[in-house]
Amino acid sequence: MALTITALHPLFAAEIGGVDANAALAPAVVAALAEAIDRYAVLILRDQTLTDEQQIAFATYFGPPEINIGAHRAANQRRLSRPEMADVSNINPQNEVHRREDARRMFNLGNMLWHTDSSFRNPPGCLSFLYAHAAPSRGGETEFADLRAAYDALGEETKADIANLRAEHSIMHSRGILGFTEFSESERAALPPVIQPVVRVHPGSLRKTLYLASHASHIAGWPVPEGRLLLRDLIEFATKREFVFVHRWRAGDLVIWDNRCTLHRGRPYPIGERRDLRRVTTADQTAMTEGAA
């Protein structure tokens, strides 16, 4: 069956048909998917059947998977054995739904803020591959925002004002917004802040794009309150409804997105229902960061 592409939004996002993600991919198929990612930034592959190992193998066609930050947690706090896998679920190692006050649930609530994966790392995240083993009966959608289209829509004065700005990104900042501060000393040591440009050139499409996230704490060299106001205004602008695509999950969905030119966030769902999503993110080897702050 030939690969098919069906656009899902006027600006970005597409559904891909004709690809079995647990099978060996021919170079031509990998190239076609990479081209589609560069064009659409968010790809949906329905009705997939993947083990964790198969999901990691599929992601590896597109770059080296990063080691997830959950690997820094104690072994009895981790449900998934592979360090490349991010556990974007509400399930504990005993296969039970998290209690409302569980610290792992509190940490994952940060995924409901607009963000791009691993912007707080060096190198930052490139592509993410999120696969659904189980989805709730309602809610739990993932919203995506097109940061290339948002940049294009900015006024020329704003583009000039932000052209050379840099922002400090930290996972501790984004989780601190919600009041979560329960990081171990080893986690803090392994995840120092990094400096990222506010505007990047997307290497696949050569389009300029905003590079934003809830992880972005402040503008380097500016008073902190002033920088935070600017970042808040830019995220508010970039997440206007015309720039946003909403994906409604069902089991077997594999969603790929480009962290270099999109924002995303999860949405609420019934606290007692299972939501088992697992993510692999590749490292952006071409990113230009300025190192730890």
CATH topology: Double-stranded beta-helix
Mind summarizing the main beta sheet? 7 strands, mixed
CATH superfamily: Clavaminate synthase-like
Helical stretch count?
8
Radius of gyration: 18 Å
The helix/strand series, from N terminus to C terminus, equals EEHEHEHEEHHEHHEEEEHEEEE
Number of strands: 15
Described by the principal axes of the CA atoms, the overall outline is globular
Give the fraction of residues assigned to helices: 10-25%
Class per helix and strand makeup: alpha+beta
Strand order of the largest sheet: 1-2-3-13-5-15-4
Please name the CATH architecture: 4-Layer Sandwich
Termini separation comes to 49 Å
Percentage beta strand: 15-25%
